[in-house]
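About this split. The held-out portion is used to measure sequence recovery: a designer receives only the structure tokens and must propose an amino acid at every position. Recovery is the fraction of positions where the proposal matches the reference. Here is one held-out target exactly as it appears in the evaluation file.
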């Protein structure tokens, strides 16, 4: 879970003066260019009208651009009104790891209004699922995932480091040079190459979830090449990891409180008339002492309290409250199958993290410096998130033992020289989204009153979409404190 926010008005935009006007170029119609790119129908079937694919060559290591190159696939939905076309908006739907082009048909209905003025393009990022190593990649880098686990002592921590390093190495062996260059700094340089290939004078970009890390990295690298940036339900890469954790912990508690309030007011809740916080905390504590079996698992699997905390987020972030209450009730009576949620489709019935995705997150600094720092994070989690006391350290455990320097460290955005940006987020993402957007003067975040990750692309929020479209068209930032209902 991450965060999003509000809009700024034309008056605020005007107050920003000529600097903004100089960045918000191409408000007059422009003919389609994309010089040097050859667009053709995509290989899939049932694609929406106007969907095309191309490809681009980029250095595998932008610090050594004359070395080996890799091919990345591009996809776009063409503008539907060429006489009023303004340019191209590029998006990254998050991850890290998944291919973006397959999302174009799914997101096409939500992009219909934007396409009246823009082409909408995306790309399959370097290392994306199914794009580089065939069956070897699929097994070593995706299926054989890294478990989320919380080391209880130094010996556990060291053992986790060794296990993680073995997983990294299995994936790295498929293509060592590519594995070593999956950080978001390299991906932001790829994005700049895409902007140039599209013949766009400045970047228009939607960054959803982890796509916001690519966006903020781009803003640090190329602040003078930005026209408009919209960030949705962001992963925070502009504060240190402890501040990020603190905001995430508060979001988790806010989500759980929403669940508890719903249960208190709905007689259909399996925990109605009980203290939901107390029931949950007791279940987690008991399951950490004696894990609860998952009936039907072969080989037999049991769920600890930490395992339940990991899967709880899937229920809460999608407001599947009735299902979550029933799962808690079943688990306290000895059946952990319902609380496995979407993880029941995974061999082993527990969430894991693809090593190729870890190669991005760990190289982007999503890790603690050492065991002592991890223990401090555990203590902070107990204070801020009593219902999820170690959720963040368990998540960051995928990077314990990361053997390389952080290639793309967390860092603030430039204090000046950027146009206003727009964010949007609901409960679960709002604090971290504001933390990012607020670093750019005259920017704003739309607060969505409800629950849901990915308001524009994923959920098609009918209140958010027209405001974001107007921002891309003429630079109008929604007024401060703008709110929208959940879709």
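Reference sequence for scoring:
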């Amino acid at each position: 879970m991450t965060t999003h926010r509000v809009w700024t008005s034309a008056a605020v935009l005007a107050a920003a003066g000529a600097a903004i006007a100089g960045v918000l170029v191409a408000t007059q119609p422009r003919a389609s260019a994309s010089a040097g790119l050859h667009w053709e129908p995509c290989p899939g079937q049932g694609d929406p009208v106007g969907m095309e694919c191309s490809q681009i060559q980029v250095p595998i290591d932008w610090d050594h651009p004359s070395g080996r190159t890799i091919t990345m696939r591009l996809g776009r939905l063409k503008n539907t009104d060429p006489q009023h076309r303004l340019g191209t908006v590029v998006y990254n739907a998050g991850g890290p790891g998944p291919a973006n082009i397959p999302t174009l048909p799914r997101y096409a209905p939500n992009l219909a209004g934007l396409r009246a003025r823009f082409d909408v393009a995306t790309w399959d990022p370097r290392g994306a699922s199914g794009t580089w190593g065939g069956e070897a990649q699929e097994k070593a880098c995706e299926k054989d995932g890294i478990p989320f686990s919380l080391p209880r002592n130094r010996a556990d921590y060291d053992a986790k480091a060794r296990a993680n390093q073995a997983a990294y190495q299995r994936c790295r062996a498929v293509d060592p040079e590519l594995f070593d260059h999956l950080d978001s700094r390299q991906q932001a340089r790829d994005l700049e190459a895409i902007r140039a290939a599209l013949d766009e004078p400045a970047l228009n970009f939607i960054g959803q979830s982890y796509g916001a890390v690519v966006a903020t990295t781009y803003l640090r690298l190329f602040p003078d090449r930005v026209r408009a940036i919209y960030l949705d339900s962001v992963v925070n890469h502009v504060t240190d990891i402890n501040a990020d954790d603190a905001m995430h912990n508060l979001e988790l508690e806010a989500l759980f409180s929403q669940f508890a309030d719903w249960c208190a007011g709905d007689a259909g809740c399996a925990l109605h008339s009980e203290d939901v916080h107390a029931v949950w905390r007791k279940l987690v504590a008991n399951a950490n002492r004696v894990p609860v079996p998952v009936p039907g698992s072969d080989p037999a699997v049991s769920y600890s309290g930490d395992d339940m905390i990991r899967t709880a987020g899937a229920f809460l972030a999608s407001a599947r409250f009735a299902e979550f209450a029933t799962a808690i009730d079943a688990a306290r009576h000895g059946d952990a199958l319902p609380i496995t949620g979407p993880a029941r489709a995974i061999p082993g019935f527990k969430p894991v993290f693809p090593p190729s995705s870890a190669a991005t997150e760990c190289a982007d600094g999503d890790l603690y410096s050492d065991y002592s720092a991890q223990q401090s994070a555990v203590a902070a989690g107990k204070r801020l998130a009593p219902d999820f006391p170690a959720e963040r350290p368990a998540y960051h455990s995928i990077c314990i033992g990361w053997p390389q320097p952080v290639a793309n460290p967390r860092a603030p955005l430039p204090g000046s020289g950027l146009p206003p940006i727009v964010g949007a987020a609901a409960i679960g993402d709002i604090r971290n989204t504001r933390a990012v957007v607020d670093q750019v003067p005259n920017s704003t975040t739309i607060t969505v009153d409800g629950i849901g990750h990915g308001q524009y692309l994923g959920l098609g929020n009918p209140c958010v979409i027209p405001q974001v479209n107007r921002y891309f068209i003429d630079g109008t930032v929604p007024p401060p404190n703008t709110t929208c209902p959940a879709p």
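Annotator remark: The longest strand covers residues 51-59.
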